[in-house]
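Need Ribose-5-phosphate isomerase A's 3D structure for a figure. Predict it.
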Amino acid sequence: MSEQQNEAKKIAGRRVIQEFVRDGMKLGLGSGTTSHFFVRELGKHVANGMKLTCTTTSRSTIDVAREVGIAITDPNDIGELDLTVDGPDEIDRQFNMIKGGGACLLWEKIIAHASRQMITVCDETKIVDRLGAFPLPVEVVQFAWKQTERMVARVLEEHRIEASIYRRMRDGQPVVTDSGNFILDCKCSAIVEPAPLEIELNRIPGVVENGLFTRESAGMVVGCFDGSSYVKMR
Ligand SMILES: O=C[C@H](O)[C@H](O)[C@H](O)COP(=O)(O)O
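Structure prediction for Ribose-5-phosphate isomerase A:
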């Protein structure tokens, strides 16, 4: 990842705080490198006295938040959130996203839906004309995962999507999510109709959640390589 891209992520995070975060809010903190830059920026405001009640979308974000002095509330004890800020792996101009490159999609979707508003934070490289270059993650229970994989392949085929599906591995071991599940990464041809695909994948027994987020994002805050940023609302 280039230094320029990291800088664009930081710029976007600062802009989110400026435009959307207010004292007293209940916030959902997203996962991944972009969200972590945002959390680190937020830590500076908390250190300067901003009062926030925060919960997170992954164990990794809990660690980053604590590191920068942000207390984390159990999601069961927070009620409805005002705002969740989270990053995509890809986002199109209709605000459809692929998420889950860091295996956090399930908690991310739960927390996004627990919030009155979700804002996407990203650098300009994440914006695409059509979803599908980034492999679509599907979180599945461990039991009979190869059967679930066959059913995922069938649904993708029904959507006329050519796909290669791989169980995600790291250091020779299957990746296990924060909820104890596996991830199937689906390297797809272009995803033309993400909204029905999102629903149909989730109808498969064994699928816990998939990385298509077609309804959640209310707007995007984009950091650019030239140092500028912009906000686009749905
Ligand atoms: O599971 C991970 C999340 O969906 C991330 O928010 C997503 O992968 C984007 O991560 P990054 O900001 O590192 O590109």
